[in-house]
Amino acid sequence: MKFINYMKRIKIILAFVSITIVAIVFESCGGKREPNYTYMPDMAYSRAFEAYDSNNLKNENINYIPYPVEGTIRRGDLFPYPLPNDSNGYKMSAQIKDPLPPLDTIQMAEAQRLFNINCAICHGPKLDAQGPLSTGGKIPAVANLTLKQYVEMPVGTMFHVVTYGKNNMGSYASQLTREQRWMVIQYVKSQQLKGSAASDSTKSSGTAAKDSTTIKK
Amino acid sequence: MNQLTRIFLKTTAILFFLTLLSSQEVLFAADGEALFKANCSSCHKPLEAYVGPALKGARDREPSKDWVYKWVPNTSVMVNTDPYAMKLKSQFGNVVMTPFPDLSKADIDAILEYANNYQKPGGTPEGPVTQPQTDNSLLYGILTLILAVIGFVLLQVNSNLRKLTDEKEGIKSMPPVPFYRNKSYLLLLVIVIFLFGGYLLVQGAMGLGRDQGYQPEQPIYYSHKVHAGDNQISCLYCHTGAQDSRHANIPTVNVCMNCHKSIKDYGGKPLVREDGSPVNANAQIAKLYQYAGWNPNTKTYDKPGHPIEWVRVHSLPDFVYFNHSQHVKVGRVQCQTCHGEIQNMNQVKQFADLSMGWCINCHRTTNVQFNDDQGHGNKFYSIYEKFHEDIKNHKYDSITVEKIGGTECMKCHY
Predict the structure, then answer these.
(1) Which residue does chain B place closest to A166, by CA atoms?
(2) CA distance A173 to chain B (A)
(3) Which of A13, A36, A140 is nearest residue B43 as measured by Cβ atoms?
(4) Contacts of A26 in chain B (CB under 8 A)
């Protein structure tokens, strides 16, 4: 009788110890480098393709094109930019007109926000090529948009450059829609008009300086 | 007397001119640096080729001492006529220098003088200040263990002493029970194991499917601290989609190349992994060039590129719908609210546990930004007409996400 009691006790203790070990194993599985286990993987992980999933459809002979058909225009978006990315297109771009009506104050605030996110890191929030990446010289030859040649630059040429990039500047077509690009250009032009009166008095050989974009191809 | 004054005047005049001249000298040297920084530094470096050639010793390489005077104000014409200029143009990717007609000969001299005397700044590389995180739990554990052993020994001593006194007074004591069969000891052990095991079990079970602190190794050691922190790049520059779509998209390689076309060297503080090993930042940029198919020497894409397969850090189960634009654009929630201090993380680590309780808590406490009189806030909420009325009638002063249905099941599960 005593022996049976003893065995029972041992069993209870063993049960507790095994529970503890299981718990510790669960706990330690949440390692930092590997994702944790889930209760029901078929509920947690999508069986349908999610964004950025890799797929093997081509090898399964399933015809799937991940891109829209060429020439597709998004609902509500502007028509595609007609000029090609070459020197001839660059020259012709001066004739392209801004398709947007002048922005109201709310739209202008949005354009400023887009400019500050996408452009100001190099061109500077004041358009003077004093952005965080250009002041330290990390990115060379950033255009100082307050200079005369940029104040006089046609909007179409600006759109061409933002769309295709030029010299060190990359294309922003993947980050800004056509409409957003035109909005940003309207913002730049409005700031240039504000600034050009003030900057006339402060010019000197020193300030003419920071520019670089006059680099011609 | 008269002569003396004259001599005195003459010497003072000479001294005056001498000081003027020498101060001119100082101004001259300083001017060189200022002029260089203002006019040239965006394309030239003193010691190495950049967009244009290195300026140190430029005059010795040029065909004649006066060549540079002709070149600087008149680059666009000379580049088509002068053989040396044509050679330079082909060397530097057919990029032609901006003409600087405003720079005088003295200015050019000053700039070249500055470049020739330029010394590489020999600063001591600043090591990262790594403070080992002090974790006291081990110390406390050892202390508790020692106390437990002492307590155990004292209890044994106590029972022995009692036995001795009992013997002395002639009281018959019970036969001794060894401690491993002592009921109170066993009970204590069981309670301790139950509490400790139960705690770990509950923690482990609740942690299933949650990944707080998950910090996977990425194909490229990309530091958010360097990009979003030190260089102040907006989150939305790369994760453009966060404001427009369900996903905060991962940037394609061309977005990286917007800046890394120019930036091929890392010049910041040395990067160190969590385990203390140093990171070769330039090798990481070289990896990016491989993915992009970019040749930094010729500055062209000469190989086919392929996407970088980043490892996803934050992931919600498939049965939860989450939309970034709804939070970023409509709710105007800062990225850091859910993702933590991303701008201070080298490798991204999951900040929140992304549990349902965590979502619900935020929905209960966060106020939505209704349109106020100034036209701020969000038009999205204008459909909640009754709440607008109530705010006007001062029934409420703010509306939480919960009030507009932010804790309904089918908001996120459907």
Answers:
(1) B258
(2) 10
(3) A140
(4) 200-201, 204-205, 207-208
Task: Give the mean pLDDT of B376-399.
Answer: 80
Tokens matching residue B238: 């790369």
Nearest to A130 by CA among A146, A144, A113: A144
Domain ranges in chain A? 89-202
Pull the structure tokens for residue A195: 């600034």
Which of A182, A197, A97, A105 has its CA nearest to residue A151? A197
ipTM exceeding the 0.90 mark: no
The three-class DSSP label of residue B278 is: strand
**Helix (H, G, I), strand (E, B), or coil: what is residue B6?**
helix
What is the pLDDT, as a whole number, of residue B253?
92
Report chain A residues whose CB lies below 8 A from the CB of B43.
140-141, 212, 215
What is the separation, in whole angstroms, between the first and last Cα of chain B? Answer: 110
For residue B27, give every residue at least 6 positions away whose Cβ sits within 8 Å of its Cβ, in sequence order, or none: none
Classify residue B122 as exposed, middle or buried by CB count within 10 Å of its CB (0-12, 13-18, 19+).
exposed
Of B137, B219, B213, the closest CA to residue A31 belongs to: B213
Helix axes A105-118, A178-199, angle to 10 degrees: 90
List CB contacts (< 8 A) between A20 and chain B: 193, 196-197, 200-201
- Beta strand B278-279 with B271-272 is antiparallel
Interface test with B, best of A9, A117, A149 (most B CBs within 10 A): A117
Superfamily of domain A89-202, CATH level 4 = Cytochrome c-like domain (1.10.760.10)
- Global pTM exceeds 0.95: no
Chain B hits for A105, Cβ within 8 Å: none
Closest among B140, B6, B103 to A204, alpha carbons compared: B103
Cα–Cα dist B171/B365, whole Å: 69
Cα dihedral B203→B208→B209→B214 (10° resolution): 60
- Inspect the interface and report whether the beta carbons of B42 and A116 lie closer than 8 Å: no
Q: Does the distance separating the beta carbons of B194 and A16 come in below 8 Å?
A: yes
The residues near B299 (Cβ < 8 Å, ≥ 6 apart) are B93, B261
Judged by CB atoms closer than 8 Å, whether chains meet at A23 and B312 is answered as no
Residues constituting chain B: 414
Chain B residues within 8 A of A30 when measuring between CB atoms? 207, 210-214
Q: Do B39 and A205 touch (CB under 8 A)?
A: yes
Q: Number of C-alpha atoms within 13 angstroms, CB side, residue B390?
A: 12
Q: Give the single-character DSSP code of A174.
A: T
Burial status of residue A201 (CB atoms within 10 A of its CB: 0-12, 13-18, 19 or more): exposed
How far is residue B409's CA from residue B413's CA, in Å, rounded to a whole number?
6
B261 in contact with chain A, both atoms CB, cutoff 8 A: yes
Could you tell me how many CB contacts below 8 A there are between chain A and chain B?
A: 193
Contact A117 B196 (CB under 8 A): no
Q: For residue range A7-39, what is the model confidence (pLDDT) as tens digits?
A: 677 777 777 677 666 655 555 544 488 888 888
CB atoms near residue B253 (< 10 Å):
17
What confidence tens digit (pLDDT) does each residue in A102-141 have?
Answer: 998 888 999 999 999 999 999 988 888 888 888 877 888 7
**CA-to-CA distance for B192 and B214, rounded, in angstroms?**
31
**Cβ atoms of A150 and A144 closer than 8 Å:** yes
